[in-house]
């Protein structure tokens, strides 16, 4: 029996999927359990999945896409067989545990998904109101379309990397307020965005929209998502076509994909939408997930501070509505696409999901215990995001998503 801490994100109720390697070896599919990972490829070789119609080679791939593409009827069986195995001390497969069981400290976790297309929504009303108040019209912060459709832009998949990836401060065009023209240089307004991303688990056909009530069949699971942003570059470039180089230099996801089945106990009814959306966006049983989200800011001087406590449910639009809207014109989705929520801000101070909002565009610096302050992220600083739900002693979490800006 593997002992795991009761406050582990990776309880028996979770069993998230990821990609790992050890000692520079081949990448395999793995699951997380407590502080450990279990290698699904070796488990399949040892016969754990013999009662499932599955080719074990699907676990010897560098990404989860092929496994996820088998569909929930197969992936759910794999997950439940692993849960049963973890509770079955008498299973002879345990005798070979040195082949498939490793401490997380000993392994490297990789980007779990080969991301085809990535879309970033803008679905938290508080975030949209805060941004609209700062940059447009405080008396009318939401644009007229905001409550009628889940606003989004198409992002860039090539620069999405896994937690632990560190990165250089991006360069770009910046237009200072007191200057007539732009200058070129490093961003001075490097920011994070606290988001969750849905991993698409089922392909849809071109010109065949997904109905809002079928949409959740297309979601395999979720990861934490940090949509790193350069606010000064973004502000100058965005008109009229939207985010570009202020966004696509880097985004990051947590290494373990938590399934919709694991998250099912944390479903809560979605907020009433007023005005009601058009019929194709009206859901029978719309829900969000009650998952607490936090952001810690760690300065290069070594000070750490909790700067955001939000919740996955702080969203106006549901993932089902996002999917229905995304495909209503005939646009198709593929296994491995990523649909990010947009910055998840709550409606009170302390729950804002970006520094833009927390420091109100740099006007209210964050004070650290050693007397240092920050308005945006400096070189050498780290941002860590975490998320978990807990109910009746059952804890399901995402682990941590950490990135450091190189000095
Ligand atoms: Mn974003």
Summarize the structure.
The chain has nine helices and 25 strands. It is an alpha+beta fold and 407 residues long.
CATH uppermost class of the largest domain:
Alpha Beta
Mean pLDDT: 97
CATH superfamily of the largest domain: Fumarylacetoacetase-like, C-terminal domain
Overall strand count: 25
Radius of gyration: 21 Å
> What fold name goes in the CATH topology slot of the largest domain?
Fumarylacetoacetate hydrolase, domain 2
Number of domains: 2
- Helix and strand composition category: alpha+beta
**Helix share bin:** 10-25%
Shape: globular
Please describe the topology of this protein:
Layout: E1 17-21, E2 28-33, E3 36-39, H1 40-45, H2 65-69, H3 72-86, H4 97-100, E4 101-103, E5 108-110, E6 118-121, H5 125-135, E7 152-154, E8 160-162, E9 171-174, E10 183-186, E11 190-191, E12 194-200, E13 219-226, E14 229-230, H6 231-237, E15 251-253, E16 258-259, H7 260-263, E17 267-269, E18 287-289, E19 292-298, E20 304-311, H8 319-327, E21 338-340, H9 355-358, E22 366-367, E23 373-374, E24 382-391, E25 394-404
Parallel strand pairs: 6-21, 8-15
Antiparallel strand pairs: 1-2, 1-5, 2-3, 3-4, 6-7, 9-10, 11-14, 12-13, 12-21, 13-15, 13-16, 17-18, 19-20, 19-24, 22-23, 24-25
Bound molecules: manganese (II) ion.
Residues 120, 193, 195, 227, 342-343 line the site of manganese (II) ion.
